[in-house]
Request: fold
Amino acid sequence: MYVEKKEALKRWFLCNKQRVSITTDIWVSQTTGASYMVITVHYIDALWRLKKLIIGFKHITSHKGQTIATVLLDCLVEWGIRKVFCITVDNATANSSALRKFHTAFELVSDQSLVLDGEFFHMRCSAHIINLIVRDVMAEIDQTVAAIRNDISYVRSHTNRLRSFELKVDSGKITRGSLPLDVKTRWNSTYLMLSTALKFKVAFDKMEAEDRLYNDYFSELENGSKRVGPPQHKDWDAVEKLCRFLLIFYNSTLVVSASTSLNAHKCYGEIVTIAANLMELITNYDPELSSKATEMFKKFDKYWDGLKNMNKMLMVATVFDPTKKLELAKMCFEELYGLDTVEYKEVYESLISVLRSLFKE
Reply:
């Protein structure tokens, strides 16, 4: 059945000369260490329905650019795909190298294999960029995060401990679900854990002041060292500031990572929202907040290869939203550069130029 469906879809790609967009990601097995590349195609069918299909889960022998490019090209040829719009990858250096090599090879496959000669076919993954920045800032206070994680682990570990904690909370009944424990590899779950813990800061302080078993727990050894915690005043302050940053990225991640709705036309607006929020925090009276916001904004700008130089197809997708057209793009430019500034005019004229080029092609 799989072979029949594959052949039918391959014929459809070839006969319709269907242009697709691609997303790829590399997964490393925790048990064997082997690396695999998943290749997903996104396209619009004859009934104007957006389709998403995994067409390859390929073993790769290395993470080098040439290897990735070869595996990707072979997979597209295998499926009869001759036209590509964009390929979205994470920010690994090897991926940039891979797409340069892929660009050269794929242009030989057919005429008009890439739009506008592939000038904009390399798309950076918004969610991955957010993930990189957040992980950098969270790594700086990993001990503070560990202290609060241990706080919550203690309370959740036994019914008696939960009941003791509940007596110190003014807001009413507490369940294990009231204190979520994070998945360490998922920063968004860590944000939810920290933001929830902040609401119970007073109760945790009471635990330290009144509960002997709680203090004994933090005196125990864990992996040969004293267990991290309990969190002190400086830890809560650090987490409160961290959550101000994480909220910015968390809200945007919910939009750009949505898997059940279209979101390409929303990405540029979310990118600008993040940048604008960071720019506002740069002017904050708190020097620590201002310094951290400046550092994060520089990284954010760097990962996008400069906000002015980012892939124009993100802006084009915004314009193609019939409810927004050029208005949202102009509002975003004004937010970033100010109205009628040199930068505003440069980016706007660049966008108009790309739209005209797309129309001609």
Summary: Residues 41 and 55 are 7 Å apart (CA to CA). The two ends are 38 Å apart (CA to CA).
